[in-house]
Amino acid sequence: MFAARSLPRALNGARAFSTSPAHSLARMQIIGRLADQPELTPTSTGREMVRYALGVKSGPKNDNGERQTSWFRVASFAEGPGRDVLLNLPKGTLLYLEADARMDTFQGQDGSTQTRLNLVQRNFEALSRPQNRSDSDRSAAEEPSSGLGAS
């Protein structure tokens, strides 16, 4: 009986669980390796942000025994100890990232219209650091064989 009464509201698009307006939401969870050590950069408004890139390998291996790498650029506005930890992570660190995602369209220098995925860090966790020099010299996107990657 309860489900029968709720059905017409659902078909009309009403949200029975909230009176607030619907908001678009795009989030990503990524496990990948740092392409380089994160760096602190100023924004045009004078605020500081941390920028870094994550490499994620996925798909089947090609003839050279390598998988395709996807690169994700990330901005972080974290402050305090979280920012300090992020800035001290070395290249090759395996990182779990939760981020807000947004597609931005802009005019390139050549006048063409370009679209870019922008990720703003919400949360991160360092899963493992490179053990020695040979680990950090490997491809930054090289991952364990867990099969985890962009979701």
TrEMBL record:
InterPro entries: NA-bd_OB-fold, Primosome_PriB/ssb, ssDNA-bd. This is SsDNA binding protein. PANTHER family: SINGLE-STRANDED DNA-BINDING PROTEIN, SINGLE-STRANDED DNA-BINDING PROTEIN, MITOCHONDRIAL. The keyword DNA-binding applies. Residues 126-151 are annotated as: Disordered. PROSITE patterns: SSB (PS50935). It comes from Aureobasidium pullulans. Gene3D superfamilies: Nucleic acid-binding proteins. The keyword GTP-binding does not apply. Pfam families: SSB (PF00436). Residues 132-141 have a biased composition (Basic and acidic residues). Keywords: DNA-binding.
